[in-house]
């Protein structure tokens, strides 16, 4: 996890350096090339910023995952055993489940992750078959969340600072999905590639 976060920071840092170098190259160009670009530079720089990975939102990730994507809508109840919850995670190849309150309401109670299982069951020598999810989950009032409008880079910063791998997505109606550090990494890497393509087109006069 630490290596992944360090790699992300380094990648984003390199991306910023590259962008600055390209724009500096345009500013310092000589002769007719500098004159040709000088009037367009402000507009073109704004377009690069607008379409770069700085503008990618959590809603873009959710759209890419689709409503039926693995992990988006998987849940368990507070009365389920930890064993059943972990079994569900394994079957669906996800690292966290949304926890809802038992009963007809099924309002969100919290989240249970692989880390909860390791720290609160395995390390403490408790039985997963006799322990309820509600006993070890991270409760709703302690959840770190994002909205569909949250920028991906902001979400990545939240996950890095709080050392979490999954973050629920909330809007005015309640929880609408969940993104993982893997989702965020894929989004950043994909946009990073597109950013490099746009910068290259910028240099070559493709804008």
Brief characterization of the structure:
With 207 residues, the chain is of the alpha+beta class.
Structure description:
With 207 residues, the protein is of the alpha+beta class. 54% of the residues lie in helices and 14% in strands. The protein has nine helices and six strands. The protein has helices spanning 2-28, 31-38, 41-51, 58-65, 82-92, 114-122, 133-136, 152-161, 181-203; strands at 75-77, 96-100, 108-113, 138-139, 166-171, 174-180. Strands 1-2-3-4 form a four-stranded mixed beta sheet. β2 (96-100) and β3 form a beta hairpin. The longest helix is centred in the N-terminal third of the chain and has 27 residues, at 2-28. It is elongated, with a radius of gyration of 22 Å.
Defining traits:
single chain; 207 residues; alpha+beta; two-stranded antiparallel ribbon
Which secondary structure elements does this structure contain, and how are they paired or packed?
Blueprint: H1 2-28, H2 31-38, H3 41-51, H4 58-65, E1 75-77, H5 82-92, E2 96-100, E3 108-113, H6 114-122, H7 133-136, E4 138-139, H8 152-161, E5 166-171, E6 174-180, H9 181-203
Parallel strand pairs: 1-2
Antiparallel strand pairs: 2-3, 3-4, 5-6
SS strand fraction: 5-15%
**Mean residue pLDDT:** 76
Number of helices: 9
What's the count of strands?
Answer: 6
The structural class is alpha+beta
Radius of gyration: 22 Å
Taking strands numbered 1, 2, ... along the chain, how are they ordered across the largest sheet?
1-2-3-4
Helix fraction by DSSP (H/I, runs of at least 4): 40-55%
Overall geometric form: elongated
The end-to-end span amounts to: 38 Å
List low-pLDDT spans: 25-51
Major sheet details: 4 strands, mixed
What letter string, H or E per element, gives the SSE order? HHHHEHEEHHEHEEH
